[in-house]
Amino acid sequence: MEHVPVQKTDGPRPGGPLIAPLARAPAPSSGPPIIRTHGLAKTYPNGQAVFAGIELDIRANQRVALIGSNGAGKSTLLKCLIGLLPSTGGEIATLGERFTAMPGPAQMKRLRRQIGFVFQNHGLVGRQSVLTNVVQGKLGLPGSWRAWHQGIAPRAWREEAMQVLAEVRLADKAGARADQLSGGQAQRVAIARALIRRPRLLIADEPAASLDPAVGRDIMRIFSDLAGEHGITLVYTTHDMQHALDYSDRIVALKGGKVHFDRPTARVSRREMDGVFHG
Amino acid sequence: MASTTSTASLPSRLPPISPLSFTLIVAVGALFLASMGQVAPSPEKLAAGAPRMAELVGRMLPPNSDPAFLQRMGWRILETLQIALVGTVFGVIASLPMGWLAARGISPLGALRHLPRALISLFRTVPDLVWALLFVSTLGLGAVAGTMTIVVDTIGFCGRFFAEAMEEADKKPQEALHAIGANRVTVLCGAVLPDVMPTLINSSLFALEKAVRSSVVLGLVGAGGIGQELKVAFDLFQYRNASAIILAIFVIVLAMEFLTDRLRARFQ
Hints:
The complex is a heterodimer.
Chain A: E1 33-43, E2 49-59, E3 63-67, H1 74-81, E4 89-94, E5 97-99, H2 105-114, E6 115-118, H3 130-135, H4 155-167, H5 183-195, E7 201-205, H6 213-230, E8 233-238, H7 241-246, E9 250-255, E10 258-264, H8 270-277
Parallel strand pairs in A: 3-8, 3-9, 6-7, 7-8
Antiparallel strand pairs in A: 1-2, 1-4, 4-5, 9-10
Helix pairs in contact in A: 4-5, 5-6
Chain B: H1 19-39, H2 43-60, H3 67-102, H4 114-125, H5 128-139, H6 143-167, H7 171-179, H8 184-218, H9 226-235, H10 239-267
């Protein structure tokens, strides 16, 4: 039985279940554990079960695609893994923080400092410049109150923001307003905003869903390349089979509230992928 | 062609009205008719007042253009604009935290946000002349009472609009910043205020326009500005002075409307 190393924890919550050691889930790769779950379940307050009995073991530097049809619970699972939504059963250990339901405030703070987020609809502040949006990626880090606008941010952060903008090939747009960008450009800025945090884990919820196919592939390639270059573990949801096959090391398929399969991408056939969405 | 038989009945020409709505409409109509008999001017009364109005207008013309009077009026106009400007700026600055505290979904006060909301409502619903009377009683006659009146009036006006604008701000950037651990103040400064800035500027310009109109009449109760000069003119039957002041007020308000319209168009 392998135990997740507990670096820091707020301890069990009053009245909550005692955390048992996490059971070993399928581990297709070695490396330090980034996310582990045991018996993870989520039921909405109206009694509707989203998923149950989820066992995951995501290791450092993996690129993991969470796939499933609409309503399969991909986004909900993603949010539960990082404590943005409370789970209703099982245990989670993300970046060494073990919790049931939701992380404690101190755990949440530590988690957020190590995670970068990219949302489907980028979540940029439209009336702010691209540079300000990227610098805002520093918010939530220690001493980050100066990150709400690039005009008052330290020079080092502004330079760092320009550097990550160059990595997503948008340095020339630093002064442009975010609402003047195309969908693909906006998503690249969102990636830069996540990268400036120097995260250990990058979480992306349908990052290419609202983009046309060519731009979507470009975004996925940038994601994949930068995660590899920076040694960041990438976990993203998608309902695009080709994106999952082309830009992941491992595919976790959700169907009927369960893990339908969880294995290295090289061992997943197109027919199996079809089975996730049809039949 | 085969004929078809529809089972659906033809809808009535007018929307259905409930007995309660019908009763309310009749009651309001009856109240209006009863009130009109007591407070609406009768044609005879209007006809009797017309010659007196003509006589008053005759005594007002031509407006006084004496340089000494115009100079005194100029200083009073300047004071009026100062009351409006300073009162609006302080009012807008105070409205930002008030609006934030009162905004649903953004306020750090949770359910207690109803307290700042109630205070804003109080500032808005009590008429500015009543606030002016209160400030004249507490701070004494003059422009300071007028400025305080405009501050309170502006908070009542802008506080509400600022709160509503913040409630309607795009939630996605706020969620993105909250997700990475940004606190409420940085989310306000980094995502909410930039998003609602055009609305804030528009509301502030409306507040300035409103403040100029208000500050003109505040002098009637001793709170400084050109209104004080107008009251003196009427009290002392100096109707040519009064007409010059009314003309000046017309020009100021018109100029302010023109200026704020241009600025609003620029910030759209």
